[in-house]
Design goal:
CATH architecture: Beta Barrel
Number of domains: 1
Shape: globular
CATH superfamily: Porin
Structural class: mainly beta
CATH topology: Porin
Order of helices and strands: HEEEEEEEHHEEEEEEEEEEE
Distance between the termini: 42 Å
Number of helices: 3
Length: 353
């Protein structure tokens, strides 16, 4: 009887598994993700600018995540698509992006020859466009340390993306880009609260790639909704064999919180693939705040060695030189005491699944 029971259970499990596998193939659903964890050193990490910190950190090359991606052929060249992508901190196991379940992306939409339209939480147009134009490709020590908006996301967003050969066109409108803030968007009678608008275009001709993007955000309260933060960004990318060179510029006008400012951000750098497995990237970034001494310049290096198609070892380093009351840290979103410089070094491993 026990053998018959075990056999029956095994048969049931086999049927369920085969049915699940069939459903997965029929719906075109893919499970994917990556884990990125390293050991990091940061100088002047204390609130008063003193003391070094040694820690384990997540997402040093790219954010740790897992996700589901799906598509269904509707016929006539039309496809239904969705993405549910969850970010997490691999050093602690906690959810990223403010504790959201699918904080990196959560959208559904339609795709055709004319492009695609998607609805939900999505990366902004700067994030969509500028990864190839950052010399160190969005490691935590690069462009994002100077301006985190280049890798931000928007809740409640409708987005259009059109790829036409060498030309890409993109547009985004969000009725409230941060739903974790009380009355942060979609407030009856005040559609400007938490509003974000973005538009960009990129074009490749021969070895040269070009990008131009505009991003605008409003405050997330009734009082700050009239405050507008505008970014105008552009970049060039040159590729020749194992060598790439990039240069970029962003102009920031206004801020959501007082005081309003105007700031220029310049960067340049490049990369070289010494072998198919080993690449070295380097970048220099400078923020110049108009009519203010609060400027900053950072230098970043990123080396990666591929053990396989899915597993990389990496070593990143950066130095942030703050002037005046500037408080930028070397890590994306990090801060230091006013006018204090910071050095960061991190070594780790990234695995894709």
């Amino acid at each position: 009887m026990k053998l018959k029971y075990v056999a029956a259970m095994a048969a049931a499990v086999a049927v369920l598994m085969s049915g699940g596998a069939y459903a997965q193939v029929a719906s075109g659903v893919t499970l994917y993700g990556l884990v990125d964890t390293g050991i990091e050193y940061l100088s002047h990490a204390g609130s008063d600018g003193s003391g070094a910190q040694y820690r384990m950190s997540s997402g040093n090359v790219t954010g740790s995540r897992w996700g589901l991606r799906g598509r269904e052929d509707l016929g006539g060249g039309l496809t239904a698509i969705f993405v549910l992508e969850s970010g997490f901190n691999s050093d602690t196991g906690t959810s990223g992006q403010g504790g959201r379940l699918f904080g990196r992306q959560a959208y559904v939409g339609l795709q055709g020859k004319w492009g695609q339209v998607t609805l939900g939480r999505q990366i902004n147009t700067l994030y969509e466009m500028f990864v190839p134009f950052d010399p160190v490709r969005y490691t935590s020590y690069g462009l994002l340390a100077q301006d985190a908006q280049f890798a931000n996301r928007a809740d409640n967003a409708i987005k259009y993306t059109g790829n036409f050969g060498n030309l890409t066109v993109i547009g985004l409108y969000s009725a409230g880009y941060d739903a974790t803030i009380a009355n942060g968007g979609e407030v009856p009678g005040n559609p400007r609260i938490g509003q974000e608008i973005g538009a960009g275009v990129s074009y490749t001709v021969g070895n040269l790639g070009m990008v131009l993007d505009y991003d605008q955000r409003r405050g997330t309260t009734a009082a700050s909704a009239p405050n507008i933060e505008r970014r105008y960004a552009t970049g060039l990318l040159w590729t020749s064999g194992p060598f790439t060179a990039t240069v970029g510029y962003r102009f920031l006008q206004g801020t959501i919180t007082a005081p309003s400012l105007r700031a220029h951000l310049y960067w340049l750098g490049g990369s070289y693939n010494f072998t198919q497995a080993f690449v070295l990237r380097a970048g220099v970034y400078r923020t110049d705040v108009r009519d203010s001494p609060n400027d900053a310049m950072s230098y970043a290096l990123a080396a990666a060695y591929s053990l396989s198609k899915r597993t990389d070892l990496y070593l990143n380093a950066s130095f942030m030189d703050n002037k005046g009351a500037s408080r930028l840290g070397v890590v994306n979103g990090g801060t230091v005491a006013s006018g204090v410089n910071q050095t960061g070094v991190v070594a780790g491993i990234k695995h894709i699944f």
